[in-house]
Amino acid sequence: MRVHVVSDVHGRTDVLARAGEGADALLCLGDLILFVDYDDHSRGIFAELFGAEQAARLITLRTARRFGEAREMSAALWASLGGDPRDHIERAVRRQYEEIFAAMPVPAYLTHGNVDLPRLWPDYLREGHRVLDGETVEIGGLRFGFVGGGLRTPYRTPNEIDDEEFARKVEAVGEVDVLCCHIPPAVPELLYDVVARRFERGSEATLEAIRRTQPRYALFGHVHQPLSPRTRIGRTECLNVGHFRGRGTPFVLEW
């Protein structure tokens, strides 16, 4: 069996359609939309609405961890559009989802990322797409468990949840051969982004589950340029499957 795994697609539809070629199935670990692009400030929903210069300003404030100023700046820009900011965001997200799910190969098993809007996914899923979150599925004789979303951060991305809720989903998955999450377990070298020069949040509940149940693999994304893309916890190989928007190629898992 061979599966291809992607995470952090962030609008990269040009190569997504080919990501399942040669595989029995595609696994997608979330973050489908592109809200703001830290490499190309002209891309993403924020730049689409307010321009590259304002996107660059937002990124500068966030990188400096001046979150209060970033929120004030954003609030003023959203107010300039009139109406409810959530309506503007949803329209832009829907445009991206329409293109992304049209390009998503089948069969595909998906879970949500921290920047996704899960309530919109049912409108765009095609036959052969299956969404799992706190759930398991058997693929080629192995049991795969999926846990989507992220934990609370100062960035306030749309699909951040409380630690307790995240832990309940991890517990619901139970013992599996392959644990698939959007965010990594709480291991420092897996969480530090060497380009953004910051630690992302990881899950203590996932780390404890790995130590206790020892799956063959723990797969995740979220950290785009990790200090370490892999480590071992007991017999479990913990693997960052890579920033698909940047790499354009899937991670390959064979057994």
TrEMBL record:
<feature type="domain" description="Calcineurin-like phosphoesterase">
    <location>
        <begin position="1"/>
        <end position="226"/>
    </location>
</feature>
<dbReference type="InterPro" id="IPR029052">
    <property type="entry name" value="Metallo-depent_PP-like"/>
</dbReference>
<protein>
    <submittedName>
        <fullName>Metallophosphoesterase</fullName>
    </submittedName>
</protein>
<dbReference type="InterPro" id="IPR004843">
    <property type="entry name" value="Calcineurin-like_PHP"/>
</dbReference>
<dbReference type="Pfam" id="PF00149">
    <property type="entry name" value="Metallophos"/>
</dbReference>
